[in-house]
């Protein structure tokens, strides 16, 4: 099993950082179900802009915490260097 740390871009251009063990399912939840995060429910639709893959949940959570602490500009630089667009 793998774990993912990801960055979503919301409809209002804000970013959401999270982690999961099923990226497809989680993106679907963020966009369409009551199980999405409250933050993204208010800012739908969301688009996956970046993700990283890890072998342990501990690594994914650590990276999530790190990225959440960054300013918007640093997140944009990470996204632009590894664009999914």
TrEMBL record:
Domain of life (superkingdom): Bacteria
Domain GIY-YIG: 1-78
InterPro entries: GIY-YIG_endonuc, GIY-YIG_endonuc_sf, UPF0213_domain
Pfam families xref list: GIY-YIG
PANTHER family: UPF0213 PROTEIN YHBQ (PTHR34477:SF1)
Similarity remark: Belongs to the UPF0213 family.
Entry protein name: Excinuclease ABC subunit C, nonfunctional
Taxon lineage: Bacteria, Candidatus Giovannoniibacteriota
